[in-house]
Design goal:
Blueprint lengths: L1 H9 L13 H11 E7 L2 E6 L2 E6 L4 E6 L7 E8 L5 H12 L8 E4 L3 E3 L6 E3 L4 E6 L10 E6 L13 H11 L6 E2 L1 E7 L7 H14 L7 E6 L7 H8 L7 E3 L16 H27 L3 E2 H50 L4 E11 L4 E6 L4 E7 L4 H5 L6 H23 L4 H32 L22 E3 L1 E11 L1 H52 L8 H11 L4 H24 L4 E3 L2 E3 L14
Parallel strand pairs: 2-6, 4-9, 5-10, 5-12, 12-13, 13-14
Antiparallel strand pairs: 1-2, 3-4, 7-8, 9-10, 11-15, 16-20, 17-18, 17-19, 21-22
C-alpha cells in the first residue's frame, strides 16, 4: 500500500520537476569566494553566505547587503512583512537557495547570517532587529536571469522591540532613505497557513503597514502561507477579514530545507516522500518568481514623498507642542519675575537711606555775654551779660560802674547844697555849686567803687548759685557748671546710612537683573511667535500634501491635527488655551488662502471671503 502511495506521489507533476542550477565550477567558485562552511551534519553541509555591506544606517537600523558580484541589470524587489514567528527568515533563506538553483539531492544548503556585527567587535545584534535588503545579483549559470532585492523586516509583535511602532518606523526610514530602491514589485505578507484568527494588534499592524506603503500597494500584495504541509488555507479568510487586499496565495513548506539527507534502502520511502514535498515547495517558488517577472512595479517615489510628508508633519506637531510649552514657560517666568520685582521694590521702599543726627557743639557769640554751661548735659543753662564789658556798664546797660557814676552825680546836687550851706563861707548858690562839684567827685568815686564791687559779683555769679540747676533740661548741681564765653548749639543733620544703602543697592541690583531677564524673555517670546508663524504654514503645507499624495485616501485636515494635540494636552489648561488660539489663527490663514483662490468658506461661525480681514499668527501671544 505504501508502495502504491509513493508511486502515486511520484507520478504527480511535482516529481518530474528538478530545478536547474549553476555549473559545478561556477558553484565551486561562488562557495570559495562568498561562503564559509558552518555545519556538516549527516552528509548535509551548510554554508553561510558572506555578504558585502553596500549601505548601513546604525541609527535607523537599516542595511543593504549584496550577495555575489553586483551588476547593472534590473532589479525585482520583494518586501517581506509578517508577525514574529511567521517564518520570514526561513522564507528568505529558501528563496536564496532557490535562486542559486539548489535541489533536494544536493548535499549542501546556503543560509544568511542571523546576526549583525556592530562597530564594537565584541558585540553582535540580531539580524531580525534590522531592516535588511539583500541584493541577489544574477551570475552565470543561475537558473533565473534577473537581479532580486529581498527585503527582510523586523517582525511585529517582537518582544525585543520596546515599542509597537518600531517596525513601522523602521520601514518608514527605509523607504525614505536613499537605499537604491525606487520600485517595489511585491509586498509579501508572511503568515502561518493554519492561522485561524487574528488579534486586534495584528490587524492594526497590518493596517499601519498598508497605510505606510499606500492604498495602491494592494495590486502587488501577495500572501505567503508558511508551514503549509497540506491544503490548509485558513489564513486566507483571516487576512481578508483583517481588510488586507492581496492578489495571490502561495503555500510554502519550508520546514525540510535543512533536514539531513536520507541514505540507505530503509530510508527510500521517506526519501521519496521528502522529495515530493521539496518539489512541491519548489513549484510554488517557481510560480511566485514567474508571477514576479510580469508584475507591474509600484514606483516608491510617491510612497517615499508621502512618508516624508508624514514624518515632517509629525516633526511639525512635535515642534508645535515644544513651542507652546516654551511660550507658556516664558509667560509664567515673566509673571513670576514681575511679582518678584514688585515684592523687592516694596522692600527697598521701606529702607531709609538718609538718617537724621543731632550734633552739639560750642559756638562763640557777641562779646559782652557769658554762659553757664553743663558739660554733662552738653547744654547752656543760662545766659548772662559780661561785667567786663565796660561800654555796656557805662551806658547803663552793664552791671555796675555806669550805674554807680550816674547815681553819685545825681545825688550830689542834693547833698552838695546841704554841704555848701553848712560850710557857710559862700552860702547860697555858690554853696550849692561848690556842693555839686564836691558831690560829683564823691559820687564818681563812690560809683566806681560800687561798680567794681558789682563786677566782681557778676564774674563770680556761679559762686552765688547753689543747688540743682533751674533749667528744665538740666538737673545737675550748679557747682558742676562752667562759666564760659561759648554757648552750646544744637544742630540737626542728614547723613547716609552705609549699611542701609548697601541693602538698598543690593535690592536694586536684583531688580535690574530681573528686568534684564524679562527683556531677554520678551526677545525669546518674539522669536517664538515667529516660529509659530512658520509652524502654522508648515502644518498647512504638510497636511495638504499628505492628502494630495494619498490620492484623498488620508482623512486628514489641519483642524483635526490640532484637535488631536489639544486632546493630548487637555490636562494643561495654559497649553490648551494657546493651542485653541493657534487653531483659530491657522483656520483664518487657511480661509484667507482659500478666499484668495476665490473659494468661500465659513470658519468658526464667521463668513470669510476675499474682502475679509485676516487675523495673522501674531495674534498668538500671552
Amino acid at each position: 500500500m505504501i508502495r502504491r502511495l509513493l508511486e502515486s506521489l511520484l507520478c504527480t507533476p511535482y516529481s518530474s520537476y528538478k530545478l536547474s542550477k549553476m555549473e559545478d565550477a561556477e558553484l565551486k567558485n561562488f562557495i570559495e569566494n562568498f561562503c564559509v562552511k558552518v555545519k556538516d551534519e549527516e552528509g548535509l553541509i551548510t554554508y553561510e553566505i558572506n555578504t558585502e555591506v553596500i549601505h548601513k544606517d546604525e541609527d535607523g537600523k537599516i542595511q543593504v547587503m549584496s550577495i555575489g558580484p553586483v551588476n547593472e541589470g534590473p532589479i525585482k524587489s520583494v518586501l517581506l512583512l509578517g508577525e514574529t514567528g511567521a517564518g520570514k527568515t526561513r522564507v528568505l533563506n529558501t528563496m536564496i537557495n532557490h535562486l542559486l538553483g539548489v535541489n533536494f539531492d544536493d548535499n549542501f544548503r546556503f543560509q544568511l547570517k542571523d546576526y549583525v556585527e556592530s562597530d564594537d567587535l565584541l558585540q553582535v545584534e540580531s539580524q531580525t532587529t534590522y531592516i535588511t535588503a539583500y541584493i541577489v545579483s544574477h551570475q552565470l549559470g543561475m537558473p533565473i536571469e534577473c537581479n532580486y532585492m529581498l527585503i527582510d523586516t523586523p517582525g511585529f509583535g517582537d518582544t525585543r522591540m520596546n515599542h509597537d511602532k518600531v517596525p513601522i518606523e523602521r520601514l518608514t526610514i527605509f523607504l525614505t532613505n536613499d537605499c537604491g530602491i525606487d520600485d517595489l514589485n511585491c509586498v509579501a505578507i508572511v503568515a502561518k497557513a493554519n492561522q485561524n484568527r487574528i488579534t486586534s494588534y495584528q490587524k492594526q499592524m497590518l493596517e499601519d503597514f498598508t497605510s505606510v506603503l499606500g492604498s495602491y500597494i494592494g495590486d502587488i500584495t501577495q500572501l505567503l502561507a508558511t508551514f503549509a504541509t497540506d491544503d490548509n488555507s485558513a489564513v486566507v479568510d483571516v487576512v481578508k477579514h483583517a481588510g488586507v487586499q492581496f492578489v495571490n496565495l502561495y503555500q510554502f513548506d519550508n520546514g525540510l530545507l535543512y533536514d539531513p539527507l536520507c541514505d540507505g534502502l530503509l530510508q527510500n520511502h521517506k526519501h521519496a516522500y521528502l522529495t515530493y514535498r521539496w518539489n512541491r515547495m519548489q513549484a510554488e517558488y517557481i510560480r511566485f518568481f514567474e508571477d514576479l517577472k510580469i508584475s507591474v512595479p509600484v514606483n516608491l517615489k510617491r510612497t517615499g514623498d508621502l512618508l516624508l510628508e508624514e514624518k515632517l508633519l509629525e516633526e511639525t506637531k512635535t515642534e508645535l507642542i515644544k513651542t507652546v510649552a516654551n511660550m507658556v514657560h516664558i509667560t509664567n517666568s515673566n509673571n513670576n519675575k514681575h511679582r518678584e520685582i514688585e515684592k523687592i521694590k516694596a522692600q527697598a521702599d521701606r529702607i531709609k537711606i538718609n538718617k537724621k543726627i543731632v550734633e552739639k557743639f560750642k559756638s562763640s557769640v557777641i562779646t559782652g555775654y557769658h554762659f553757664l554751661n553743663c558739660d554733662i548735659c552738653q547744654q547752656t543753662c543760662k545766659k548772662c551779660e559780661d561785667p567786663k564789658n565796660f561800654l555796656a556798664g557805662f551806658a547803663g546797660t552793664g552791671t555796675g560802674v555806669g550805674t554807680a557814676v550816674f547815681t553819685g552825680i545825681g545825688t550830689s546836687v542834693t547833698s552838695g547844697a546841704v554841704m555848701g550851706a553848712e560850710v557857710g563861707i559862700f552860702g547860697g548858690p555858690i554853696g550849692v555849686a561848690i556842693g555839686a562839684g564836691i558831690g560829683t567827685v564823691l559820687g564818681l568815686t563812690a560809683g566806681l567803687t560800687t561798680g567794681l564791687l558789682m563786677r566782681k559779683t557778676k564774674a563770680d555769679c556761679l559762686n552765688n548759685m547753689n543747688g540743682p540747676c533751674s533749667s528744665r533740661e538740666c538737673s545737675h548741681d550748679m557747682m558742676g557748671h562752667k562759666t564760659e564765653t561759648q554757648e552750646y548749639v544744637t544742630e540737626e543733620k542728614e547723613i547716609i546710612d552705609d549699611i542701609e544703602k548697601a541693602k538698598y543697592d543690593a535690592f536694586m541690583n536684583t531688580i535690574t537683573q530681573l528686568k534684564t531677564k524679562v527683556t531677554d524673555n520678551n526677545i525669546a517670546m518674539a522669536d517664538l511667535r515667529k516660529d509659530m508663524q512658520d509652524i502654522a504654514k508648515a502644518l498647512l503645507q504638510h497636511t495638504n500634501k499628505i492628502v494630495e499624495l494619498s490620492l484623498g485616501h488620508k482623512s486628514l485636515n489641519t483642524k483635526s491635527v490640532i484637535d488631536e494635540i489639544i486632546l493630548n494636552e487637555r490636562e494643561n489648561c495654559q497649553h490648551v488655551e494657546l493651542l485653541k488660539e493657534f487653531r483659530r489663527t491657522v483656520m483664518l490663514i487657511q480661509a484667507q488662502e482659500l478666499s484668495d483662490a476665490g473659494v468661500y468658506v465659513n470658519i468658526i461661525g464667521q463668513d470669510v471671503h476675499s474682502d475679509s480681514s485676516v487675523v495673522g499668527i501674531d495674534a498668538i501671544g500671552i
